[in-house]
Amino acid sequence: MSTSSIDSLLHENRRFAPSPEFAAAAVAQPALYDDARADRHAFWADRARELHWHTPFTQTLDWSNAPFARWFADGTLNVAYNCLDRHVLAGNGDRVAFHWEGEPGDTRTLTYAELTREVKRAANMLAGLGIGQGDRVAIYLPVIPEAVIAMLAIARLGAIHSVIFGGFSAESIRARVEDADAKLVITADGGWRKGRVFPLKGAVDAGLAAAESSVEHVLVVRRGENEVEWTAGRDLWWHEQLEGVSDDHEAEAFEAENPLFILYTSGTTGKPKGILHTSGGYLTQVAFTHKNVFDLKPETDVYWCTADVGWITGHSYVVYGPLANGATQVLYEGTPDTPHPGRWWELIAKYGVTQFYTAPTAIRSCMKLGREIPQSFDLSSLRVLGSVGEPINPEAWVWYRDIIGGGTTPIVDTWWQTETGGIMISALPGITTTKPGSAQVPIPGISVDVLDDDGVHVGKEASGLLVITEPWPSMLRGIWGDPDRFVDTYWSKFAGAPKGPLYFAGDGAHLDGDGDVQLLGRVDDVMNVSGHRLSTMEIESALVSHPIVAEAAVVGASDDTTGQAVVAFVILRAKKAATVTATEASVMLRAHVAEQIGAIARPREIFVVAELPKTRSGKIMRRLLQDIAEGREIGDTTTLTDVNVVQSIRTDLG
Ligand code: WTA
Q1: I need a labelling partner for 48 at 20 to 30 A (CA). Which of 354, 373, 575, 606 fits?
Q2: H-type helices in 162-278, by residue range?
Q3: How deeply is 638 buried, as exposed, middle or buried, from its count of CB atoms within 10 A (0-12, 13-18, 19+)?
Q4: Which is nearest to 345 in space by CA: 383, 391, 381, 296?
Q5: What residue's CA is closest to ligand 1, atom 10?
Q6: What is the average per-residue pLDDT within 606-627?
Q7: 258 vs 250: CA distance, rounded Å
Q8: What is the average pLDDT across 433-442?
Q9: Which whole-number Å values give the CA distances from 199 to 161, 275, 300, 351, in the listed order?
Q10: Where are the alpha helices (DSSP H) in 370-515?
């Protein structure tokens, strides 16, 4: 991270202490920190006991086979039962689970009793299609109630879901379905986005046509009412399959370590990794963090997390955490600006949203549109505002608090990852005095550190690499089918630590004078575009898979709105280069990347160049390319083989 970024973080020196009224009524109380410090295992065991266990656990953590953790391993539970039946049995069946709003304005309300019935029917239907414990089911859906129902029905059966974000391409579906050997795919004809139906099933068809797959059926939810192709025998309508199916379904208990889901995420290599999460520990941490970080009062609150269920934030803070806590939520299918730029704020006013959780990119986009838009809606119901997915710049933080939060709501900047499963570093509202632009403190029960490359603690007012020093309940249990990659990616950098292996997060961090943690962005080849994780290597592989490309280098260039933007440098194959102009090549390659990975990975710019700067050992100097992409004076070129390359790129770029 450049020093200029740290400077910008430090320019905002204001501190925001919780109000005495908020603190007095807050869910999170300071004793949580003391309890966790006194006995971390007992602390997490107490949190776990807030769930319903079919068989209580007697063992908290088994770390004997580190880094493969087992939490609450001799206990059994059913995750869906904890999110549904439990609330109905406690007399809260009439509480709204979801106020769902479709982009065109159609709505659907589901109470806990209704959602429980829907999930039971779906579980019976899926069981009828042969889905049982351990089977993998891929989900490729818009943000509609069926997405949540499908996830919970799969969980209820002890099967494993793999949700694929609806913006990913056919090729991404193929790779994920193949890697997990999915037996069933659940999709929709289409969904609504930006005022139009975008087709989904076609991508599944194309993905499966190319896959060496074990998929027996494709279940199709009707949403877009758009035309779809149909493969007789394989394809089934979701609503037809549900006809006449019983809503009586008893939840079976599964071991705490029964896998719950796989979620693919970008790493530093070309191939996305299937992050594996299991049941008891995961549910414990997402429920605890959701309740305490968002100050959830389930009887009265209306919570809204804008994440798509295709990302980890949607898994943990739309589906599992909030439902485990019996929360009432808003679930919205579409984009923030359709049909008008105040759509989100309109929904907050309409439903009286009390907690709102979104990404800095979205906040920055709203800032650009001007404060008049949110200010024309009544946002006074908001009590807590959350941020996730990328570092939030102090300016956006303060705007969020002042304009959306009326200058009073606590902001929780939550740092975590697909791999961590749940929130790891965040202020707790009512306790923490917040600092704009800083995630600040590990939540109770979590231990982190900032180390230099040699594994030495950096001390205050210094920067280094973020590590997690103790195992945590919602930690990933591995990478699907690749235990070596799991050990290598996360646990090898600081393997020799005296107290056992440390988890290397891949993020840079700064410890301020109080010892609080400010996140500085990724230190590896992972980019963060609009809060979405992308791998430079993955995009480079996509580019070189095109016949006209000889070589490609991708960097994340800083971008005012999206945080980072994908910028690619490509060398064309000599013969092909003669047949296309640089502009044609760039148009073609942008489309090619969208097709290979998804529109979110489409480069903002592609520069056709004659050479790429390399070190003497042949490594592409991405940092240099980043300087060029961001229009900066270039940094240290002492290890560059040929300084003229940079000049030639500059000339190529005009
Ligand atoms: C980044 C999203 C700064 C970080 C939940 C991390 C953040 C990556 C924050 C994980 C935050 C997430 N401040 N950076 N509050 N939250 N990140 O797996 O670089 O999609 O490693 O999980 O996002 O992205 P992922």
Answers
A1: 354
A2: 170-180, 201-210, 238-242
A3: exposed
A4: 381
A5: 417
A6: 85
A7: 18
A8: 96
A9: 22, 27, 37, 29
A10: 372-375, 394-399, 483-486
CB–CB of 559/546 below 8 Å? no
**What pLDDT, in 10s, does the model give residues 177-216?**
999 999 999 999 999 999 999 999 999 999 999 999 889 9
Tens of pLDDT, residues 269-303: 778 899 999 999 999 999 999 999 999 999 999 99
- Give distance in angstroms: CA of 246 to centre of ligand 1: 41
Q: Is the pLDDT of residue 4 over 60?
A: no
Q: State the Rg of the chain over Cα.
A: 24
Amino acid at 533: R
Work out which ligand 1 atom sits closest to the CA atom of 506: 21
Give me the count of residues in the chain: 654
Which residue is listed with tokens 């351990």?
134
Question: Which position has the token pair 């984009």?
Answer: 335
User: Tokens in use for 497?
Assistant: 């630590």
User: Is the pLDDT confidence value at 8 over 60?
Assistant: no
CA gap 398, 435 in Å, rounded? 10
Residue 552 pairs with which residues in a beta bridge?
A: 570
Residue 557 backbone zone (phi > 0: left; psi -120 to 50: alpha; other: beta): beta
Pocket test for ligand 1, best of 388, 424, 520, 530 (most atoms within 8 A of CB): 388
CA atoms within 13 A on the CB side of 3: 2
Count of C-beta atoms within a 10 Å radius of residue 293: 25
Token match 């769902």: residue? 100
How many whole angstroms from 343 Cα to the centroid of ligand 1?
A: 26
Largest pairwise CA distance in the chain: 73
- CA 45 to CA 256: how far, in whole Å? 13
- Ligand 1 contacts CB of residue 506 (under 6 A): yes
Q: Name every residue whose Cβ is closer than 8 Å to that of residue 146 and which is 6 or more positions away in sequence.
A: 186, 188, 221, 223, 238
pLDDT at 477: 98
pTM of this prediction exceeds 0.90: yes
